[in-house]
Amino acid sequence: MTRPDQTPLVTFAGAGPGAADHVTLAVARALAEADVVLHDRLVGPEVLALAGPQALLIEVGKQGFGPSLAQETITGLILGFAREGRSVLRLKSGDPAVFGRLGEETAALELAAIPYRVLPGITAASAAAAALGQSLTERGRNKELRLVTGHDAEGYSESDWAALARPGAVAAIYMGKAAARFIQGRLMMHGAPAETPVTLVENASRPEQRICPATLATLPQAAADLSGPAVILLGLAPRAGATALLEHVI
Ligand SMILES: C[S@@+](CC[C@H](N)C(=O)[O-])C[C@H]1O[C@@H](n2cnc3c(N)ncnc32)[C@H](O)[C@@H]1O
Description:
Layout: E1 10-14, H1 25-33, E2 36-39, H2 45-48, E3 56-59, H3 71-83, E4 88-92, H4 102-111, E5 116-119, H5 124-132, E6 145-149, E7 151-152, E8 155-156, H6 161-164, E9 170-174, H7 180-189, E10 197-202, E11 210-215, H8 219-224, E12 230-234
Helix pairs in contact: 3-4
The structure holds S-adenosylmethionine.
């Protein structure tokens, strides 16, 4: 099922971390053209405003591992609209391939023999690091970057804590607020110093963005203070030169 221009009817796309100017041109075009937009709760009104007047917008409610429509219901909607010949944009926050359960939805389309395409987006870790003026990898500091979830369907999520506790390790921890004390305990158990820098970035890229510099010792208190979506950057502190950002630092 492709359109005359060979674009498949179903597009999976990343809306970026929130700000409309972090949406790629390809995703903005897909938004303008889609008949139906099935979006996660974290995709805000500024981005949805890029949808065309013909678009039917349906929130499918996913936010981290919080309440949402059942995965089968979401898949059923995508398949149903595509079978009616309507172009469907499945819009996820950040990048659809980072903690976005993209594989489960694309597998369902493959089973149904419906072609699709994937358009990437800016993931929360990239926007958060940019807010600190930081590089996620740096010669002489870290040759690898881990994207970790604090929480999964089973509860607090285990990671390779020994690797994350090594000097210079950098990780972006998604969905980590509620697991902050657990993460602190695991890292310290594996020898990470209490003064390891940890920065929490809430609502990265949005006007209400907050940057909370902390250490492993103060991580749980810093996390408890946040109410919006946040990414925890382990091993990174705001760069001193990123002074333009100071008004957002708490
Ligand atoms: C289900 S994951 C989706 C991640 C998304 N696919 C991405 O690439 O950014 C949801 C988590 O992403 C993080 N997140 C999403 N948007 C964010 C933002 N604007 N600022 C900080 N963290 C964000 C939070 O950790 C949130 O709990």
